[in-house]
Amino acid sequence: MLLRTGVDEKTGEVLSPAVLAERVGWCADLVAAMVGALLVEHWKSVDVEVLASGRDAGGRRLPSNAWMALRRLGWTVTPPAGVKVNDRVVRMAQEQAGRVLRSVKWRVDVTAGVLSTWPADPRRRTPVEWDQVRTAIPGGEGLPSSVIKGRTRQVAAFLAVNGRLPVDVFELEGAPRVPRMLLLAACDRQQATIERNDTDPAKALLRVQLPTRADPRSYRDWTWVACPISLPPTVPASAILHLPTLRVTSRQVRADVAYTHAVPKAKRAGHTVALGVDWGLNTLLSAGALRLHPDGRITALGAGGQFRAAGVLAKQHRLRRHGQRLHAKADHYQRLAGGDSQHNLAGKHAVLRDEIRHVSARRSKLNDALAWAAARWAVDQAIAARATVIYVEDLRSMEARGMGATMNTRLSQQVRGKIVDRMRHLAAEHGVAVVTVPARNTSKHCPQCLTPLRHCKAPDRPSVAGWKWAICPHQSCGWQGDRDHGAWRRIAARGLTHQAKTVTDKTSGHMVIRTVVDTLEATAVVTPTACKASRRDRSKTGPTRHQPPRPAPRRRRAPSPTRPHHGRAGKRPEGHAPTDRNRLPRAAHRHQGVNTISTPTTGHRPRGAALGAGFHFHAHASPPRWETIPEIQSNSGSLS
After folding, report:
1. What predicted TM-score, i.e. pTM, was given to this entire model?
2. CA 155, CA 175: separation in Å to the nearest integer?
């Protein structure tokens, strides 16, 4: 949410968005400086292991709050000399640094496992080497292969430059860049408060202490600022608001407000209607609902739907290619400069780095928007079908390969993990469970008879090899359809038959189906339903009634009115095109059939539609041939 204004409670001054962003930025800069100092001091394997162990030197359990854990370990930080801040500002710095240090533990374990089992050929591991690296990584059995490959490429790049393997991830990566933010959740009422309006639940008031200068010298340089917040309609009126996180972006202050409210509890088993979601090759998401009957039959509820985001994905790929070109150019400038800060290319290199960060931020925002939109669509499909569970493919076993270099890269860049996380969040509000199922053979076998499918390029080109269209070769089945539509049927049917095998992962708390049982898989078939006959009997009982010829579209049966100036009147009905035009209208020169789909080769010129040529590539209404439309009765009806 955007904070548009604030009021300084000491002076009564109304702060503009720019001034409010400046004051929040001053506080965020103070916090970022202390966070950077903490990360530089404790960016090493020993300190990260101590923090991740959850125990202090005396064996006591560390608190869950990061700032309290750092204080228990004695990791303190002080503001710059001459700057006065209260203890709550230091808490925010310790909380942010503690979260970063806790999150790096996962990268430490993955890098250590890759280094301890370094393969003979980093580009291609043998099956034995894959088993070794997964055993060396905690939880490596379910780790995606793409993560291990990415970390291997990072280590190989270090090896090519330095001639040796890195010691750990801290030699491979430097301390991360600290974002400008204020984690108000680490504060108490002496630094920030948030209260909901008693009369209007859509309004809230955030009060926070902010400095009046970039380097506050005393507590008098800190004043309370009241910021009104307009809550979106997605926040329930009964929800409990928590202190937000303030971020400064483009001279604006955004508040990430967290809230808590009661939701129905999702169940692991006992589902009769389920939504299957497939990560498609043709589209981002394909989904549909299945029903489990008491006799064990599984039937489809409709034909399903697809979430198409071709425009967003195309923009995402353009930004990716642009970022790759910028990285290549920046690396080239860096090699030419040779580390000399006074080189002529140093300024250009700094500009490129800023542009790289800008492109990365755009990609991140685009991915977030796409993830929320796709998750919202999937949950809406489940609500419309009255499904109580959403079955999704297990992302850990998915890897883009075999589709060509361009397609593999595009599939690897899809934000599948973010979509599932957002889907779990949105589904929890409605008591809908989200369960991951194994993805093996979901697109390979027929959903109606489990026979291996034959894939082709298109339904009208069955002999051309491809992967878009699937055809069942079994003669008694004969199912055919889009590859993705067959996959969501298989996913939902597998989930319904294996719902008794659903367990909750102890680490993440997510519901998963880990293995496929052959006896249950044999019953995961979708029974085809017969087409329902029309309620009206349309059989022929007599001769066909004669239909009089219809008049030309939008052509009146009344005579044309008298023209205001000169000209003949009442000679013929008024039509689309002027009667005094010798050449054909522009629409007649397109040489298009009824099934032709094309795009205009020139700019948008609605001249033909404006002159009465009829439909154009865009919709335009043909203007009448008179200034005042006369009141004339017509029984031709309206076709517009």
Report:
1. 0.70
2. 17
